[in-house]
Recover the amino acids of this structure.
């Protein structure tokens, strides 16, 4: 597998590739993980004491969710966004679109917060209208509001016509954005039928992260147009030129060609790769083109973007910058957003099955390589938390890096802080905030479900305790942090909807049994809304 990948000529002949590959030690360690999973399966006994511990920790997450909801409900119920320090709310349109409520609705339901769920559901059905002037983000509204409505519809028994009607109305209004010459939509959508946003440069991730939602909406309604429109986007993307499966972070909506100077798996790139795999899983692995493109992209990631730091030996997924000049350079930088990748790799390696449920011989060389990279990368993401004084990760981290042309470590900027002292994580002044993001917790959940290693849960508990210690407000709710390198940190006046929709949901599932939203039956959209697998026929 490695020889085949390395034998392919580099896209850029002068680029010096890190040429990452797994070590013998990592192979042995994975064998031990697999062996332990099989032993656990064969001699599985109920550990009442351990179950009680995780039940109590799960209850604390449920309590935190109620604490966040109660503050929002008390201060600004119905608003799209919540500012817990000033106790104010803001809307994306003049009357709001149920942005916050729709996004957190399935979290309330999955945690058994029935009273709170009914409060949110009734507000959406009886008080929210999408017939409003103004523009909204096509991507954010799709993954948060449409995705939230679809998930709530499923988890409430697929019988709530009021919720489904809202989803259909919103989907129909957003789908107008697909009516461009190429089918590539603009980044914004106009809800009312009075025009369409201008389409020029669109974020690659944003146009390629609408498919799970619209394909499921198509399945529920029998309206093929929803599926055809988002499938057309993928057809255009598949035809466009790529770099060993990697794509720039912008696409020209008028030509259907990629553009831009950077390749990364952080902002504007991340969920393109995520949804390649998840579209394959959503329809029960019946559309192999998505898996083929995903594997091709992961080969590109391993060939050009994966490296290991010199001191702590942290495995990182960096960026390529300078594409337009034809001589791109490796940049050892990771957005926190990149931390989704560990979970995604593990999910693809076993198709959501636990290692205890499959034969070790059924794992291909690619599956093993993906599992190893998943574990190593997620360990790096955990370091981004635990190596900080607050125990919480910065929005962006840079890393010590050995330049393979000069064989030296590039100098640091004066404002960079190295954590821990003598370590490899560099945090710039502008990147030290924490928005209570979910990506690392998502990967911890998936790795725990697949490997059975207790450490992933324990990491999650330590991170949850840090959120409780530093992000929880005495006046109610939780707030983002301005600087994770300072104790105590100051707060920013925002509680993102994804903290409740994603971060707390993933914590809750991490501390629950594997039968709660099984990975072999559900796929999480990029906003943590679990949607069921289905077949088109």
């Amino acid at each position: 597998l490695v020889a085949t990948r390395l034998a392919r000529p580099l896209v850029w002949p002068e680029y010096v590739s890190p040429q990452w590959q797994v070590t013998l030690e990592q192979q042995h360690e994975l064998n031990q993980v697999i062996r332990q999973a099989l032993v656990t399966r064969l001699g599985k006994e109920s550990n009442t004491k351990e179950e009680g511990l995780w039940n109590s920790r799960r209850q604390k997450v449920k309590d935190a969710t109620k604490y966040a909801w109660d503050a929002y409900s008390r201060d600004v119920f119905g608003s799209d966004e919540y500012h817990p320090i000033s106790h104010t709310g803001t809307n994306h349109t003049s009357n709001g679109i149920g942005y916050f409520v729709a996004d957190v609705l399935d979290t309330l339901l999955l945690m058994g917060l029935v009273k709170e769920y009914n409060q949110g559901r009734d507000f959406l059905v009886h008080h929210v209208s999408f017939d409003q002037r103004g523009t909204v983000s096509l991507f954010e509204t799709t993954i948060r509001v449409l995705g939230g409505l679809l998930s709530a519809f499923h988890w409430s028994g697929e019988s709530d016509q009021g919720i489904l009607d809202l989803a259909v109305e919103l989907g129909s209004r957003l789908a107008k954005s697909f009516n461009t010459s190429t089918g590539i939509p603009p980044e914004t959508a106009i809800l009312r039928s009075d025009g369409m946003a201008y389409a020029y440069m669109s974020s690659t991730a944003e146009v390629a992260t609408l498919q799970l939602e619209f394909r499921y909406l198509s399945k529920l309604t029998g309206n093929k147009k929803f599926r055809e429109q988002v499938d057309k986007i993928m057809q255009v993307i598949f035809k466009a030129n790529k770099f060993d499966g990697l794509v720039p972070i912008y696409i020209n909506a008028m030509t259907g060609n990629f553009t831009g100077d950077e390749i990364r798996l952080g902002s504007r790139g991340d969920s393109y790769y995520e949804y390649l795999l998840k579209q394959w899983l959503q329809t029960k692995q019946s559309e192999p083109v998505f898996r083929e493109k995903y594997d091709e992209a992961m080969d590109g990631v391993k060939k050009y973007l994966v490296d290991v730091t010199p001191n702590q030996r942290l495995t990182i997924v960096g960026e390529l910058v300078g594409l337009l000049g034809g001589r791109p350079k490796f940049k050892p930088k990771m957005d926190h957003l990149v931390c989704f990748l560990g979970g995604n790799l593990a999910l693809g390696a076993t198709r959501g099955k636990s290692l205890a449920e499959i034969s070790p011989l059924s794992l291909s060389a690619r599956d093993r390589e993906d599992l190893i990279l998943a574990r190593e990368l997620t360990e790096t993401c955990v370091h981004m938390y635990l190596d900080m004084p607050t125990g919480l990760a910065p929005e962006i981290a840079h890393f010590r890096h050995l330049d393979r042309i000069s064989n030296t470590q590039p100098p640091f900027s004066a404002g960079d802080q190295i954590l821990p002292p003598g370590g490899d994580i560099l945090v710039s002044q502008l990147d030290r905030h924490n928005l209570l993001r979910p990506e690392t917790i998502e990967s911890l959940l998936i790795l725990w479900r697949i490997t059975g290693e207790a450490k992933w849960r324990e990491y999650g508990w330590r991170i949850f305790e840090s959120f409780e210690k530093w992000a929880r407000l005495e006046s109610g709710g939780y707030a983002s942090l301005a600087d994770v390198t300072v104790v105590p940190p100051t707060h920013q006046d925002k509680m993102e909807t994804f903290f409740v929709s994603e971060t707390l949901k993933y914590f809750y599932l991490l501390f629950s049994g594997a039968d709660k939203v099984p990975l072999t039956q559900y796929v999480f959209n990029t906003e943590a809304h679990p949607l069921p697998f289905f077949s088109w026929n």
About this structure: The chain has a mean pLDDT of 95. The radius of gyration is 22 Å. Residues 48-76 form the longest helix (29 residues).
